[in-house]
Amino acid sequence: xxxxxxxxxxxxxxxxxxxxxxEARKKYSEALDCxxxxxxxxxxxxxxxxxxxxxxxxxxxxxPTPKNSKEHxxxxxxxxxxxxxxxxxxxxxxKGHFRIAKTLAGLSRIAEGIDHVxxxxxxxxxxxxxxxxxxALVTLLQEYKYFSNKKIxxxxxxxKKAKFKKCIVVIDIDGTxxxxxxxxxxxxxxxxxxxxxxxxxxxxxxxxxxxxxxxVDIVGYTLSDEEEVIIxxxxxxxxxxxxxxxxxxxxxxxxxxxxxxxxxPERHGLYIAQGGKCTLIDCKFxxxxxxxxxxxxxxxxxxLKKCLFNGCCGGLIVLSKAKAVVDQCQFKSTVRIGLEIRDxxxxxxxxxxxxxxxxxxxxxHAFGNGFNATRCVFHNNSRHxxxxxxxxxxxxxxxxxxxxxxxxxxGTGIIICSGGECEVRDCQVTGSKVAISVCExxxxxxxxxxxxxxRFGITIVYNMGKDVTLENNTMKSGEADVLTxxxxxxxxxxxxxxxxxxxxxxxxxxCLAEKLKLIQKQMKLNKFKKDDPPENLREExxxxxxxxxxxxxxxxxxxxxxxxxxxxxxxxxxCSVDCQKKDWKLHHKDTxxxxxxxxxxxxxxxxxxxxx
Length: 612
Known about the structure:
Elements lengths: L1 H16 L3 H18 L4 H20 L7 H20 L5 H12 L3 H17 L8 H10 L6 H5 L1 H4 L6 E5 L11 H4 L4 E6 L2 E5 L4 E3 L4 E6 L8 E5 L10 E4 L2 E5 L2 E4 L9 E4 L3 E5 L2 E4 L5 E3 L5 E5 L2 E3 L5 E3 L4 E5 L2 E3 L6 E3 L4 E5 L2 E3 L6 E3 L5 E5 L2 E3 L10 E5 L3 E5 L2 E3 L4 E5 L4 E5 L2 E3 L3 E6 L3 E5 L2 E12 L6 E4 L2 E11 L7 E3 L5 E3 L8 H15 L30 H4 L4 E2 L7 E2 L2 H35 L1
Parallel strand pairs: 1-2, 2-5, 3-6, 4-7, 5-8, 6-9, 7-10, 8-11, 9-12, 10-13, 11-14, 12-15, 13-16, 14-17, 15-18, 16-19, 17-20, 18-21, 19-22, 20-23, 21-24, 22-25, 23-26, 24-27, 25-28, 26-29, 27-30, 28-31, 29-32, 30-33, 31-33, 32-34, 33-35, 34-36, 35-37
Antiparallel strand pairs: 38-39
Helix pairs in contact: 1-2, 2-3, 3-4, 3-5, 4-5, 5-6, 5-7, 11-13
């Protein structure tokens, strides 16, 4: 008996696949009778699947009949009865909600099916399902028109509750061309998924703000590659903000094009601060000014996977001890820098392409902690600045570059300078003026690389005794494999050896020692007290700045008053003393010291530069 129901189920599946729906229904009915008599430990789940299959058979039988006929209605009622039996047997299986919602739509009982659609989508979010791959679900959502505007949302029981854990909101352009729907439900939700239909959504205010403790999942709900979801901010008004701002909350965005069309220099497509966390998958970015993404604060982080930055002014900026992970992304035709790391930020980059950048593909400078780049491609960078720039610049922190391809970069392939430490392994650099340059007290370990068809292989300039080790590299250069200045220590070579050429133009540079002494002197003398910052660093509000309190998440505009600045760092602003005390215990106690140190380091560096 136990084997009989399985055989009958398989026969029913074959008949269903052959569009023999009446015969399939009979086989499923026989299998149900056999299984009810056997009653094994897992029989409830198997019963649910058989009821689901028979419900699908009844639904298919209804399709050829006239829509309003009694026969049509009878088939759908039988399908609905079996669909409810699916949930009775296995309440955890989302297919039951799908069968019920599908059948109720056929019966034109939309109001009854909405709750089942919401539960079905909740299952998809919890299980991490890719919406674009589920064509049946997309078709069901279109049948319900659940998403054309927010009326159904506001009428639902979930929206009326003050707090709830999970809510699905589907947003449609509704033919208007603009939508500000994102901020409508956000204040009441702690965990929400926004499914956005194709269209251009323009916000003329602060965009979407993910507040503390909120978790937001945004999915561009497209049916084909031709459809696109575009979310943007636009305009010159003072309150035009970032497209997305994440302050201590969590944001996940999939399959969305993010545009920052504002002309304000302090606006970004995505701004992450105060411990915010963000994940972006299959997204596209375009920004007229600054960086598309700015990540600040020690506990903030961003993860990018399969994202495209095309024609942006700047790409990703990581600073203030924040962390970034970049995987399988493309940075194309950025006007300035693809990925910028500074102020103790750190980035991990793998399988990513940087091409046609105006300046560098990756740069770590201004006290950045470094980066790890693996299996990346750098092509035709330094378009605007030519020989003075590089595809990759490591001028701060400790970095590694492994198994990367660098080709046809107009200036230098890799620059290691200004006290930066970098390990370059298993890379290929071709078609550059200089493959790898180590200068101004950079420390480098360069091993197992192929440096081919460059004017110079490795140059060591003004390195002043810092370690440079070369191990088993292959070099074929136009003028010199290894070029050094007269005052530099020769590199240590392991395995293959290369001819070292002295640069006659820098053989008798008498200014270098005096420059270094002046730098050391200024670094000792220029110590500023936190209570007496220099005038050029005193906090001044930009006329178009929109400040947000990091504790409560509200802006100056919504509060109707000007916020007070922290007297220590003079960077962070609060709406009240209570918010300041609360934030001090949670976050600002650590970041305040960091901001003060970064300011002091900046002043020392600027005054050293002025002295030179």
